[in-house]
Amino acid sequence: MIDGWKIMENNTKRTKGRWILTCFIIPTVPFAERWNINMRILHVCAQEPAFNSGGSLCVYQSHYALTKLYEDVDYAGPAISNKDIECKYKKRYYLDASISKLTKAITLLQLQFDRYYPNWKNANIPLDQYDLIYVEFTKMNYVVKDIAVSGFKGKIILRAHNVERDFYRIELENDRSLLRFMKYKLGGGRERYMTQKADRVLAITEIDGQRFIDIYQIPKEKIVVFPVGVNEAKHQKEITGELNEKIRCLITGSLWFGPNCEGVKWFIEKVWPLVKEICNLTLAGASPLEEIKKLCQKENIHLVESPKSMMPYFENTDMVLVPIFDGGGMKVKIAEAMSYGLPVVTTSHGVIGYAIENGVDGYVTDDPLAFAEAIKTYFNMNDDDRKKILENERKLYRDNYSLEAIERDVHEIIASLE
């Protein structure tokens, strides 16, 4: 401790549930008290804070922490459908995604593909009146450009949900259209600009953080690895370890997205024949491809297309499966499963960003035989051994991926700004 400051030495070491790729000095006096006790914050989003997708859940965790820690937080983004979330913001600038054909044509001529761009330009937000602007996603480069010319003298935090350049590459591999190609070519430059202008870049995993350093030459002291966090399930099951005659398994996700589809196909073709006698499987996800629909015609597999809420499916399952081998960021569905007290079986890619230890608080393997064996092992355990797995997982969740843990991390990140 030196005169009210705490030195954090975190050279890719784990600290309170998150990774920091460097070391920096954090003041023990909260940032709001050091700089402006009535700090004004603007939260800029390309998705509304909500509970209906991985992206919206990540936005919600930022919303939760900011509005819990500070009183004067405004919002700019899509209309918020949940009134309990909406009312937490002091002022709201809603950006309508619907635009005329003429406006869309003009926008495309400006090489802007973001549907909120025209209405952002018309919102006339007094950016220079804020002390901190917290931007979700690394694709709204026009927001950061406007901040730069507004007279803004505060700090910018950029929350990167993915490395968008890598995400656009995956989209292009699955759909080689001109639009996908243009997004891929332009997206990297815009992401570079945003990450270089921000005072802190919150990467969702250690791998993403290192990618920003490698491809955009971002100074490592800017990067903080800030994991996914979700609210604890309202209807928490008592941890008993008990199972019925068959184990109910759940796979969730966007069932049109290439990596999710490939993972489902791998599981049903290579793993399912080995566990179908002890399992009932539910696939619940948005817009499943025809190939996925055909695969789900097998016995004891139930497909739910585009459910309005995932809550009833998490509440009525015994285990969550996350078979995935590609894609960016951190798999929010794993944090969701943990929040419901459900064991997870996933791959080495799916576990990125999570401190799950195989056989201790979950299961991790890329081999189809071992994946099936993990399900069988959990099924054949006695109640006490299953209960131990679930208790370990709940502690891991509460310490690292709960909203309370995220609030703590946001407080420390803002306090680190000089």
Automatic annotation (TrEMBL):
Report keywords, A-Z: Transferase
Q: Which residues form the signal peptide?
A: none
GO MF term (any one): transferase activity
Q: Does this UniProt record's set of keywords contain Transmembrane?
A: no
According to the record, the segments passing through the membrane are none
| Lineage top rank: taxon | Bacteria
Decide whether keyword RNA-binding is in the record: no
Q: Which Pfam families match?
A: Glyco_trans_1_4
Listed name of the protein: Glycosyltransferase involved in cell wall bisynthesis
